[in-house]
Amino acid sequence: MTGRHLRGALAATVAGILLAGLALFTGAGRAAAASVTDCTQWGTTETQGGTYTYQQNEWNSSARQCASVDTATGAWKLTEANFSLTTAGPPATYPSSYKGCHWGACTANSGLPIRVSELGSARSTFDTTQVASGAWNAAYDLWFNSTPTTDDQPDGTAVTDLDVKRLVDDATARGQINPAHYLIDAEAGFEIWQGGQGLGVNSFSFDAGKGSGGGDTTPPTAPHNLRSTGASSSSASLAWDPIRASRTAPSG
Q1: Tens digit of pLDDT for each residue in 162-207?
Q2: Kindly report the CA angle at 210 between 206 and 215, in degrees rounded to 5?
Q3: How far, rounded to the nearest angstrom, does the alpha carbon of residue 223 sit from its chain's CA centroid?
């Protein structure tokens, strides 16, 4: 073999090694590219190192639903879904992501559960891609339970005389609710897909009304016979007489 042919063979070998390495690198890149597709009814996909779980959760339908899930960022998008259930009944599906313990399945590194009395902070970010047609809502749940985890329905959601107005005021003050928008619904209960014997709502009430928009604008009546009964370098004691309603002497 001449030197030229040898150099050509070596060049071809090196090129082959480089191409093979490039193919391996590209293949590794594809493997690391975190997008997976799930078209199963009850499929789950760990995301962000197992801290979150995406779930197909198609609990009221067997129609085909596919989602593309980015396991690195946790982002997901339905790539195939064409449900046709009436809005008079329950939804076909609730594809969602969760962090913590959901029906006994707990994510890793979540820091949950935390006893409510020990909760120091709780913050959340929720951003969606929406479409212009269909019948759907964006849902967000917080689960409370009497024990750290359960494989059943959570039992820790019970409130009495909850001042919802204070929650609304706080969210409005923080810029999370637009004061020009409308409160249109309050809802509590169960989504039941099998049976239901023994389930019930012990009590549920919700009352809302318009405020006066002003408040008490009548100034207080001036005290009668206001006087000082003692004073010191840092305080003063005052007294006044109660105001008696005037009486009109009976006629005749």
Answers
A1: 888 888 899 889 988 888 888 776 766 665 655 566 777 777 778 8
A2: 125
A3: 53
Q: What is the pLDDT of residue 193?
A: 54
| Cα of 155 vs its chain's centroid, Å | 18
Please tell me which residue, 246 or 94, carries the higher pLDDT value. Answer: 94
pLDDT range class, residue 36, cuts 50, 70, 90: very high
Prior bond to 179 cis, omega within 30?
no
- Three-class SS of 41-66: CCCEEEEHHHCEEEECCCCCCCCCEE
The lowest-confidence range among 20-29, 118-127, 188-197, 205-214 is 20-29
**Which tokens belong to 234?**
């840092």
Instruction: List all residues 6 or more positions away from 100 whose beta carbon is below 8 Å from its beta carbon.
Output: 106, 107, 110, 112, 113, 143
Distance CA 67, CA 31 (A): 18
Question: Mean pLDDT, to the nearest integer, of 107-133?
Answer: 86
In degrees rounded to 5, what are phi and psi of residue 164?
A: -65, -30
**Cα 88 to Cα 242: distance, rounded to the nearest angstrom:** 63
Sorted by where each begins, the domain ranges of the chain are: 1-33, 35-124+135-173
Running DSSP on this structure, what letter comes out for residue 208? -
Is the CB of residue 47 less than 8 Å from the CB of residue 102? no
CA angle 60, 64, 67 (to 5 degrees): 100
- Evaluate if pTM is beyond 0.85: no
The domain defined by 35-124+135-173 carries CATH number 2.60.120.180: yes
**pLDDT at residue 32 greater than cutoff 80:** no
**Amino acid at position 172, single letter:** T
